[in-house]
Design a protein that fits this description.
7-stranded mixed β-barrel; 13 helices; 738 residues; 4 domains; 36 strands; 7-stranded parallel beta barrel; alpha/beta
Length: 738
């Protein structure tokens, strides 16, 4: 038993890799501070081969081109030093010149050069980012970019972490903008699961061979940014290909309809890729918010970035390079911007914007991200005044407009035009086609060669680099793509939300008692319950015991729709809800994502892998009971959670696993037979009260992933006699014997 006085558990220490060994302080003691930029004093970049680095800078400055040529964007090894109020971290990384135009490099008054940099950390992270830019502030309009990115995130849209920071780059001091890149870490910061990310392809726009800048814009389509995710397995490949066909089709259709107006319109209109496939107002709202900040630069086809959300089978915009300016509209700007949106705005979204603009949270967060104290107050007040003025004018301008639809051309007409443009421009690239989503063998065709097989790696390069066999190539669809989940929509008598699943699934609905019973008839059956308030409803899911030999669990955590659970809840409001899952054969028997509220009870028996998995949610549970799980009994990440009573038996791995910057408050725990009783990982905090634990290792507190830091676990009245696993930057504190 533990001593009645406060003790720090150091019974067994596991030293992991050097992912968190570069700081001279315990990161688990500063979890909140490491997530707040106001505690960063400066970032220093030292390039060991400084002579080569300086020569590269000089070559850019003296070159006769208006833009920065790709050959000058070489990567150099660097040491990146972050000085916090409470200590210093030193990481290894690589840096290169960033930016398209020469405004990203300049000479200071003393003749010293300063440049925008792309930074990729090989160890460690800064505020959870491992890939980011240090930008000359003028290239993004300084505080305009900080406030705009922050405001979009407050609205629930995907935007990068951005803040002012003092820097020293090879001995030269300057204030720069820190902005994270579009990567896995950005998605998780914005409460999205990792999935396919796309952008407009810029590779042939800037000094490509002998062509003028932007001469090839009408044949520049899209590309996949995170091809590493594509290569993770069959499910991610099928999701990526399905999404790629749609985004590529959108760019083809856009160019086909706007041959002479590429600067004025975005490739994805305000009601999505195709109004018949995507009826959400995501893009309408995004464009409205963006243009209210004079951010039309972000709508250029090559500037747009997109995240494919598999849970809703829709694209979401990722904010990038809007050249934001918080100034009041001129009449001309108002009319031009209204034409771009060309759809009415829901008043509830206007009210949400006003609520976020006037909140103290936005103001405090902005001040935490700016260091120009003499300017930040006046700028903020003027910016908010302009934003409110612009949103009011634009809302009035759009209030009487009827929703427009995209002009959709036949695919063969679009593709014929695209081939013709290639010929007219004398552009040498091979055009390939692919209809099948079969992930067992990838076959593509061209005008020169019919149906030949390529590897997954080759296909990833075709999607991400527009290259095959070291030659310029592009993949285009030959049929209208379809992302809709409507084929899986299950009709019920009086359930106001959406229930999706395969036709083999059996569903019984008892409206009077607010009960839904779901039964598997196929081993890979799943169900998704989305966008609904399920107060006082009870859900019972019964799986198939033979599911536990399902090989798909071993291939990837999620299926071709991105679901990890047999029973999945997404964007759901809980209140007095009850959930039971028996014999779940999926990666998670129960998976809850982007949801909130209070659940009365959860019971899971005989789970093949994880019994319960919560992501990006804020949920309180009265009672949790798990009997037998092939992996973790209870696993949460990226959210805030509370448990009143917890009991588990026979967890092959962890009784409770808390990860990826989560907070868990739990009491009245009884964990019997687990490899690890309770684990706090990756910048998470766990607070326990009254726990009896029978596990091989009582606790774990550690960092597992580069983008996070150490963790913290605190308990009071805890009974456990076995050792714990604690790395050098994490803590476990137990007070009093149970």
């Amino acid at each position: 038993m533990f001593s009645k006085k406060l003790v720090l558990i150091l019974t067994f220490t596991l030293f992991l890799s050097d992912i968190n060994a570069e700081c001279n302080f315990m990161t688990g003691s500063y979890i909140n501070e490491l997530s707040n930029p106001k505690y960063i004093n400066k970032i220093e970049v030292k390039v060991p081969k400084s002579a080569k680095f300086s020569r590269n800078v000089l070559k850019i400055l003296v070159s006769d081109s208006k833009n920065i040529k790709p050959k000058f964007k070489k990567r150099f090894n660097a040491n990146i030093i972050i000085v916090y109020d409470f200590g210093t971290c030193t990481y290894k990384g690589r840096v290169r010149q960033s930016g398209d135009w020469k405004d990203h490099i300049k000479l200071l008054d003393a003749g010293n050069p300063i440049m925008s940099l792309d930074v990729k950390l090989e160890t460690g992270n800064i505020m959870g980012a491992v890939s980011f830019k240090l930008l000359i502030p003028e290239t993004r309009n300084g505080m305009n970019e900080i406030l705009g990115s922050l405001f979009l995130r407050e609205l629930g849209m995907i935007a990068p972490e951005t803040f002012e920071i003092k820097t020293i780059i090879n001995g030269i001091e300057n204030v720069m903008l820190f902005q994270e890149n579009s990567a896995k870490e950005l998605l998780e910061r914005n409460l999205r699961r990792e999935s396919a990310i796309f952008e407009g392809d810029e590779s042939i726009l800037w000094s490509f061979e002998d062509y003028e800048i932007f001469e090839l814009e009408k044949i520049a389509l899209s590309r996949m940014i995170n091809d590493n995710w594509f290569l993770k397995g069959n499910s991610s490949q099928e999701i990526s290909l399905r999404a790629f066909k749609v985004i590529q089709y959108a760019y083809l259709n856009f160019h086909s309809n706007n041959e002479d107006k590429l600067n004025n319109l975005p490739p994805i209109k305000t009601y999505g890729i195709d109004p018949n496939l995507n009826k959400s107002t995501t893009f309408t709202n995004y464009f409205f918010a963006l243009l209210s900040m004079n951010g039309n630069h972000a709508l250029r086809p090559h500037n747009q970035k997109f995240y494919f959300n598999p849970f809703i089978s829709e694209f979401e915009p990722i904010y990038y390079d809007g050249d934001l300016k918080f100034k009041k509209f001129t009449n001309t700007e108002l009319k031009n911007f209204a034409k771009i949106i060309n759809n009415p705005i829901d008043k509830t979204f206007l009210e949400l914007m006003k609520e976020k603009v006037e909140s103290n949270d936005l103001k405090e967060s902005f001040f935490n991200r700016t260091i120009s104290e003499n300017e930040q107050y006046d700028f903020f007040e003027n910016a908010i005044d302009s934003l409110l003025f612009n949103t009011k004018l634009m809302y009035e301008q759009l209030s009487n407009i009827k929703a427009s639809k995209n002009k959709i051309n036949e695919i063969y007409i679009i593709n014929k035009k695209y081939k013709l443009w290639n010929e007219m421009l004398g552009f040498n690239q091979e055009i390939y086609f692919k209809d099948s989503l079969d992930t067992n063998n990838y076959k593509i065709s061209s005008n020169k060669k019919e149906g030949f097989e390529i590897s997954a790696l080759e296909l990833s390069k075709l999607l991400s680099k527009n290259s095959l066999n070291a030659q310029r190539a592009i993949l285009i669809p030959t049929a209208r793509p379809n992302l809709s989940l409507d084929n899986y929509l299950i009709s019920t008598d009086n359930f106001r939300g959406s229930i999706y699943g395969p036709s083999s699934l059996q569903i019984e609905e008892d409206v009077k008692n607010k009960l839904i019973k779901i039964t598997q008839n196929q081993t890979d059956d799943w169900v998704l319950i989305s966008n609904v308030d399920i107060s006082n409803w009870t859900f019972i899911f019964t799986g198939m015991p033979e599911n536990h030999s399902n090989e798909s669990i071993k291939q990837q955590r999620f299926n071709k729709f991105g679901f990890t659970g047999c029973l999945n809840f997404h964007d759901v409001a809980f209140n007095e809800t009850q959930i039971e899952v028996i014999s779940g054969g999926c990666e998670d028997s129960l998976n809850i994502v982007n949801s909130h509220g209070q659940i009365n009870s959860i019971r899971v028996d005989n789970a093949a892998a994880d019994a319960i998995d919560f992501d990006f949610s804020n949920i309180s549970i009265n009672s949790v009971n798990v009997i037998k799980a092939g992996n973790d009994c209870f696993d949460v990440s990226g959210g805030v959670y509370k448990i009143i009573s917890f009991e588990s038996k026979y967890c092959n791995d962890k009784g409770i696993s808390v990860g990826e910057h989560s907070v868990l408050h739990a009491k009245n725990l009884n964990i019997n037979s687990a490899a690890i009783g309770i684990s706090s990982k990756d910048s998470s905090k766990v607070f326990l009260q009254r726990a009896i634990i029978n596990a091989v290792n009582c606790f774990e507190s550690s960092q597992k992933k580069q983008e996070f830091g150490g963790s913290y676990l605190q308990g009071e009245f805890v009974s456990c006699d076995n050792p714990s696993i604690i790395d050098q930057h994490s803590l476990v504190k137990i007070k009093n014997e149970f």
